[in-house]
């Protein structure tokens, strides 16, 4: 096999590996960013500890709402 063919085969193999590696990094970063964004949204929507609320004040607000609902 000539030196040129060896160079082309080796260069092509390394090029394919580099492209595959870059594609995997992009996919992993996109996946982790999407999961982070979804978990942040879930935490924002489900957590009573956002907007300076505590579980105690949330429970008080819920019980006050229940009392007013029962009174009417």
Distance, first to last CA: 92 Å
Ranges where pLDDT stays below 50 over 5 or more residues in a row are none
Major sheet: size, sense and barrel closure? none
Tell me the β content: under 5%
- In N-to-C order, the SSE pattern is HH
Please report the total strand number as a whole number.
0
Class based on secondary structure composition and strand pairing: mainly alpha
- Specify the overall morphology: rod-shaped
The helix content, as a percent range, equals over 70%
Q: Provide a count of the helices.
A: 2
Average pLDDT for all residues: 76
Radius of gyration: 28 Å
SSE topology sketch:
Blueprint: H1 3-46, H2 55-71
Notes on the protein architecture:
This protein is an all-alpha fold and 72 residues long. Helices cover 85% and strands 0% of the residues. The protein contains two helices and no strands. The N and C termini lie far apart (92 Å). The mean pLDDT is 76.
């Amino acid at each position: 096999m000539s030196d040129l063919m060896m160079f082309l085969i080796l260069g092509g193999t390394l090029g394919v590996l580099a492209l595959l590696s870059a594609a995997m990094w992009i996919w992993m970063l996109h996946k982790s960013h999407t999961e982070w964004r979804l978990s942040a949204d879930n935490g924002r929507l489900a957590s009573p500890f956002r907007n300076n609320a505590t579980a105690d004040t949330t429970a008080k607000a819920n019980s006050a709402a229940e009392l007013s609902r029962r009174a009417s």
